[in-house]
Amino acid sequence: QLQLVESGGGLVQPGGSLRLSCAASGFTVDHYVIGWFRQAPGKEREGFSCINGSGGSTKYADSVKGRFTISRDTAKNTVYLQMNSLKPEDTAVYYCAASLSVVGSCLGLGYVDGYWGQGTQVTVSS
Prior knowledge:
The chain is mainly beta. It contains no helices and 13 strands. Strands 2, 4, 5, 6, 9, 12 and 13 form a seven-stranded mixed beta sheet that branches. The protein has a four-stranded antiparallel beta sheet with strand order 1-3-8-7, with no helix packed on it. Strands 10-11 form a two-stranded antiparallel sheet. Strand 10 and strand 11 (111-112) form a beta hairpin. It is globular. The relative contact order is 0.31.
């Protein structure tokens, strides 16, 4: 059974850091496009970072560029999201998604037959 499990969320003060993990089972992360998405209350789910299976190229939305870093550890079959300089507007439920094929940008929602994790809450507040 293919599964993604996010972890690492929590409460952090503005300017702080968190590292999220997206642990995969049933498939290998370096064969899939893996994306990070977030959804704040009352807002649509938005993609902000992704890593391609072949070559491992990465992409970031302007809102997180320079603050967030996506990476993967093939030995642990896990994709990470290092989040620095967190802002209150980063507060959301964070999800990871995986697909062999993505329609359009991997920052979008075009994950064909995609797998999604259950999400992890990130709250940035003083």
